[in-house]
Amino acid sequence: MTQPNASGAQPGNWVDPYRAYNFKLLINGVTEGHFTEVGGLGLKVERISYREAGNSSIVRAIPGRVSYAPVTLRFGLTSSADLWEWLMTAVEGRVNRRNVSVVMLDASGTTEVLRWNLLNAWPEEWYGAPLDALSRELAIETLVLAHEGLQRETSGGAAAA
């Protein structure tokens, strides 16, 4: 007897990918934020090459240092000062590290299906909203976060990186 695929996908069955617009952002200590975009989720494992002892023609590779890409948040400018105050702690040299979660929602936009946790995140860059008197667009600010680790969680539990 064969076991069903844990992801729910069976040969010949189509599994819909998640929608990029169905997400929410959770930052401990921030109560308001109208986030329009999250970018830069990523990591890199450095490659360390070495020659095998006794055989100089064979070059092996092993994993080295792991680095995490900064994550860029774009959000609508509001009267809330929560994100600005968090940024100002870093400007003053008092880094206030927070856990940040990017939560993917199902197609209906109601149920959590996947989550990325940024560990010990803090703001490292900020860009104000471009202002244009002839535009009818929303004022969108940008905040870039540094962090020390990335975890991916599904309903089955966490997978740390």
From TrEMBL:
Signal peptide: none
Top-level taxon: Bacteria
InterPro entries: CHP02241 (IPR011747), Phage_T4_Gp19 (IPR010667)
The protein, known as: Phage tail protein
